[in-house]
Structure to design on (624 residues):
């Protein structure tokens, strides 16, 4: 969500003034009072260090001084525009700036101006453009600014201004753009702002404004951008907002607004971006939302909205981003969602939605992100999901979905994240998963998946996370997993896997966590495990592993957890264990070890469990 600032460019020879008509450029010497004001600005802002400085040898600003535009008014040559944007002005605006009595344009933005805006600026009654943005100005906005009756653009954004927005700002009847955002303004939005009938852009975001949005804002019928986000505004969204029929951008997010979304919102048929997220809005999403036929972005997430998603949402055929997550929405996903063929992002997660995923979702061919997780959805994953060939992230976890993983998932060749965990899915892991070569995350844990881990999973060379734990998988662990050299987390625990731990695991040199516990694995712990020098957690407990603990375990200097309990390991704890200098938790209970505890255990150890083993030698407590 980006707010754009606009400026009206004024050039010598084409400058049109509300007060003096067509500009006739001139190069004669202006009145001395105007020269004095310019020289005061030069002195107070280190003019000799400007990016482009002034040659004062002629003492004639109209004779070519940078950023100075002069026009003939009646018979006198006057300075009418001063444009020194991004010219490395450092210092303050002098109070004598008001000597430029005919000045129409004052642009000093993108500099390093400090101190306050002088109240004398209110004397510059010919001003139509005032831009002091992107400086370090402090203090309050002077109420005298309300005397600038011809002002069209007031741009003070991105400073350190404090205090209230003066109600006198309501006197600026010619104003078309008011941008006061990114300051530290406090107090309420003055109701007098409703007097600015010519206003097209009102941007007050990122301040510390409080109170309610005044209902008078509904009078601004030519407004195209209303940007009030990231304040501490309270109360309801006024129903009068429905009068802003020219509005294209409406940002009220990140406030403390309460109450319902007014049904009058449906009047804003020119609206393209609507963001009410991160508030405390309640009630239902009004069905009139479907009247916003120009809408491209709809952000309602992180509120307390209830009730169903209205079926009229399917009317928003221009919609590209739809964010409804973290509310308390109930009922089914409307089948009309399939009408949103331009949609790229849909996030309905963290609600209380029920029913099935509609098969019409397959018509959303532009979708790249589809998040339905953390709801109460039931039924199968529709096979039509395979038509979403642009999809990069699919998350339907934390529901009550049943049935098998549809084979059409294999058609999602752009998919990078597949998250189906914590459902009641059954059947096998499809071998066609190998077609998803862009995949970085596969999370299928906590289902009831059966069958073997397909060896083709080793083709996912970009995979970083593989979670297959807490299923009913059988057979051996395919050695092809060793091809997944980008893998950082591998969780295969709590299945019914058999056979040995493949020695190819030694190639997973980026692996941080390896959980194989609660299976029926046999054979030795491979010596190659010592190559996993990035490993912090190794949990192999509750298997039938045999043989000694390999001495190469001492290479794992980042290992914090090592749990080998409930196996049939033999031999003793290798003295190389002292190399595990980060080890905090170490358990080897319920094995066939003959324990000679090494005298130099890692000093990092906090917990050691060696129950049900045969001890010989000295038991030495670790230093903690």
């Amino acid at each position: 969500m980006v707010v754009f600032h606009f400026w009206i460019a004024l050039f010598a020879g084409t400058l049109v003034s509300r007060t003096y008509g067509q500009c006739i450029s001139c190069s004669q010497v202006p009145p001395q009072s105007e020269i004095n004001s310019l020289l005061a600005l030069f002195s107070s802002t280190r003019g000799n260090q400007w990016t482009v400085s002034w040659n004062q040898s002629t003492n004639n600003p109209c004779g070519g001084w940078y950023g100075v535009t002069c026009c003939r008014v009646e018979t006198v040559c006057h300075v009418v525009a001063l444009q020194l944007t991004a010219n490395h002005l450092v210092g303050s605006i002098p109070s004598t700036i008001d000597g430029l009595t005919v000045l129409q344009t004052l642009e000093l933005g993108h500099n390093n101006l400090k101190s306050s805006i002088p109240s004398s600026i209110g004397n510059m009654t010919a001003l139509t453009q005032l831009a002091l943005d992107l400086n370090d100005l402090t203090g309050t906005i002077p109420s005298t600014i309300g005397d600038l009756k011809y002002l069209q653009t007031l741009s003070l954004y991105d400073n350190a201004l404090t205090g209230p927005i003066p109600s006198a700002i309501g006197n600026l009847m010619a104003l078309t753009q008011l941008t006061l955002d990114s300051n530290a303004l406090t107090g309420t939005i003055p109701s007098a702002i409703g007097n600015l009938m010519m206003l097209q852009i009102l941007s007050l975001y990122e301040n510390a404004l409080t109170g309610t949005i005044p209902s008078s804002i509904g009078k601004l019928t030519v407004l195209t951008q209303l940007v009030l986000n990231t304040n501490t505004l309270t109360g309801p969204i006024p129903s009068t907002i429905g009068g802003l029929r020219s509005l294209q951008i409406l940002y009220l997010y990140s406030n403390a607004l309460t109450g319902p979304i007014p049904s009058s919102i449906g009047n804003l048929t020119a609206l393209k971006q609507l963001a009410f997220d991160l508030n405390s809005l309640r009630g239902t999403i009004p069905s009139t939302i479907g009247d916003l036929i120009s809408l491209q972005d709809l952000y309602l997430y992180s509120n307390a909205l209830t009730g169903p998603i209205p079926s009229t949402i399917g009317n928003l055929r221009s919609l590209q981003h739809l964010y409804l997550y973290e509310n308390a929405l109930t009922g089914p996903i409307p089948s009309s969602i399939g009408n949103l063929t331009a949609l790229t992002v849909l996030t309905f997660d963290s609600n209380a939605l029920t029913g099935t995923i509609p098969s019409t979702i397959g018509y959303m061919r532009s979708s790249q992100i589809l998040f339905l997780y953390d709801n109460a959805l039931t039924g199968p994953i529709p096979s039509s999901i395979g038509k979403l060939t642009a999809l990069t992230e699919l998350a339907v976890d934390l529901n009550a979905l049943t049935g098998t993983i549809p084979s059409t998932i294999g058609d999602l060749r752009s998919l990078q994240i597949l998250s189906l965990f914590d459902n009641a899915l059954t059947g096998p892991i499809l071998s066609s998963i190998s077609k998803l070569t862009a995949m970085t995350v596969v999370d299928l844990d906590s289902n009831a998946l059966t069958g073997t881990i397909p060896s083709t999973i080793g083709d996912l060379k970009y995979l970083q996370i593989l979670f297959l734990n807490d299923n009913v998988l059988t057979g051996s662990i395919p050695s092809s997993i060793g091809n997944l050299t980008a893998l950082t987390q591998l969780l295969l625990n709590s299945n019914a896997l058999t056979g040995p731990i493949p020695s190819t695991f030694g190639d997973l040199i980026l692996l941080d966590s390896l959980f194989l516990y609660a299976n029926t694995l046999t054979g030795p712990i491979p010596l190659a495990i010592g190559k996993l020098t990035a490993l912090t957690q190794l949990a192999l407990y509750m298997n039938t592993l045999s043989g000694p603990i390999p001495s190469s375990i001492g290479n794992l200097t980042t290992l914090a957890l090592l749990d080998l309990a409930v196996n049939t390991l033999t031999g003793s704890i290798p003295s190389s264990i002292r190399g595990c200098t980060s080890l905090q938790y170490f358990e080897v209970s319920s094995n066939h070890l003959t324990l000679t505890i090494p005298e130099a255990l890692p000093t990092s150890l906090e917990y050691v469990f060696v129950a049900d083993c045969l001890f010989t030698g000295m038991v030495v407590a670790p230093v903690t």
In short: The chain has a mean pLDDT of 93.
